[in-house]
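The instructor's notes for this session suggest beginning with a concrete chain rather than abstract definitions. Hand out the sequence below and ask the class to guess, before any prediction is shown, which regions might be ordered.
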Amino acid sequence: MKSRRDNDDAVARREQALWEKARPRYESILERHLRLPSLAHEDLDDATDTRSREEKESEVRKKRLVYRAKQRGWLEVDLLLGTWANQHVPTLTGEELDQFEKFVNLETIDIYNVLTLRTDVPEDMKSGGREKSVVERIQEWAKESPLGKADTEKYVEVKRENNLI
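After discussion, reveal the predicted structure:
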């Protein structure tokens, strides 16, 4: 963390010293917060389930990401991102899940700004080739979405269809 104050300022030096002391704990907490837990060994012991461990963990990861997309705390983001996630996350590849998880890990205000076209897709989340990245596809979908338009019946219908109420 770089202080906005002059380096000769005693307060700036004290802030920097405190930040250096707190940084390892901050990074540890952030890493635990962002990492999705894996399945416990007892969750894999179902003899009737023939899926591999990777398939089971992928399914759990997808469900957790859908939940996180639906439960952001802002109604607008919950509806737009949660609806998109409910419709598209089950079919995403591993690489696309990584892109979506990175997007979901952003602050809610940043997600809102991307969804509502107030800001562009962050540079590190843009595609480099012809195929659009997950975040660009979400933004494109949000542009065409009936959500946000003044049709209360459509609003209730979408919420019911996507298990948001």
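Then share the key points. The first helix runs from residue 10 to 34. The radius of gyration is 20 Å.
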